[in-house]
Fold these 2 entries.
Entry 1:
Amino acid sequence: SKVKVAINGYGTIGKRVADAVTVQDDMEIIGIAKTRPNYEAFVAHDKGYDVYTLADKVDAMNKAGIPAAGTVDDMIAKADVVVDCTPGGIGEKNKALYEKAGVKAIWQGGEDHELAGCSFNAEANYTEALGKDFVRVVSCNTTGLCRVIYPLDQEYGVKKVRVTLMRRSADPNDVKNGPINAIVPNPIKLPSHHGPDVKSVLPHINIASTAVKLPTTLMHLHTLNIEMEKECTADDVKALFAKQSRVRMIGQGIGSTAEIMELGKDLGRPRGDMWENCVWEDSVTMYEGELYFFQAIHQESDVIPENVDAIRAMMELETDGAKSIAKTNKAMGL
Ligand code: NAD
């Protein structure tokens, strides 16, 4: 029988994880939890997901026309694993619920490493999550960084990573965050926390990061500068990246994040998502012995296949990370 997955928090990440789990043949969604009967809850109901809600919101859900399947506690009781996709900081409060119910749980990058004790990226440390009760799938930026740093380290040994993260300031459906006309160094104190977060997956990597927020909703863009132990050429790096299933080499006249998002739509991806890191092939350069390149990261979707692999590792449905990655990719159409 299939592994029973519940989604607690059906927003940007939660609704995507639900759909990605649904297309796998070894796991299924037994319910999603939504706090409010908004349009996303109606779509979830129309898609056939059982909609659960907080105990004090059951009446509101029923009155709005979405028959509540029960409370969040009812949903958790039926699940093998809960994927917690509530806003950063809320997921932490749910830990006691999961412990009490004896259910496995996955948190997202908005929570601290210590909450789960295991921070996850499928390519870099799949085996670390095997059989674990609690796992944290790292943030969109950290996922994007691990996907390129890990193979480079395996192949050439990474001596030092310097990265500047140019971050989207809000998701496309977010009308509350900004700026809408400024560039914001964030945080101003350096280096930023993004480098240390990569170490939650790859502890031995020497990395320093800085970050700014830009008035865009589309994607993050990273400028990387990496010193390596062994000598290699730009062509070696391009060939290495081309072998990574979750790294897409881009060119063909794509000169911006806007065109990458258009490509996602043209490819017929659900919601126009771009699950892979997008590395500009022409940017991959060796200059004075150091590697430079640009990559764009679709914040709303790059962590989605990683959540599927995390479920498979925790439930020990597959012990080989490469096989899980291939299975997830094939089912999603990646
Ligand atoms: P979101 O605000 O889009 O969705 C969160 C959902 O949780 C909303 O539907 C909200 O109604 C619901 N919710 C709030 N409190 C709840 C509760 N107590 N119980 C159940 N549901 C509740 O947030 P998001 O962008 O999907 O982020 C979720 C997590 O994923 C965060 O940790 C975030 O840091 C991380 N993350 C976000 C992105 C991104 O770019 N959006 C990327 C990677 C990781």
Entry 2:
Amino acid sequence: GRVTGPDGFVLLPGYFDRAAQESLLAGVLGGIGAAPLYRPSMPRNGQPLSVQMSNFGPLGWVADQAGYRYEPEHPVTGAPWPSMPPALLELWAAVSGWHQPPQACLITVYGPDSRLGLHVDADEDARDAPVVSVSLGDRARFRLGGPLRNSPSRSLVLSSGDVVVLGGASRRFFHGVDRIYPGTSTLLPAPFHPGRINLTLRRVR
Ligand code: MD5
Ligand code: FE
């Protein structure tokens, strides 16, 4: 199936079957063994986010008191980010419509009470490249707005194995994660269950 939303937003429900999700998860768990999850904080007030993060690929998104930016190294260990799992490079080639490979894969780990407030992804200089997002684990209520913070928004449920391609104007739309529905998937092991892992593939520059 394929659900086409406004302005370049495409949802591919169940893109990855259970076996493919398990294989992706093994890659993610291996990656965060080498590049441990850390809890970013917001630049303005130093407030910790309710999610934990890490990255794959030549560049990784980091947040701390100094700001939001892309860095080639892990902010805590100083080591380069692990390379991107081949399955994610294949996904990008299959769905992004972009000829260059992704430079960053942000790994975001949600607990049962984590949320992500309404925001725009604007730390990338590559303004025209799409973002490709993969959901693993418990379902989430995703909110898709428009170009302005007060644009009308709709919510949709993202389930384990779903892929979203944010192309065109939707790449710069306000969006967020309102809530996790704990215990709606059996994919993730402890300590990630109940919870959700989201992977976002991006061009940065
Ligand atoms: C998530 N993560 O489900 C989402 C998926 C993030 C984030 O928002 O920044 O890590 S990425 C969804 C996204 C990216 C760019 C544009 C839009 C959505 N959009 O206009 O809806 O954990
Ligand atoms: Fe975002």
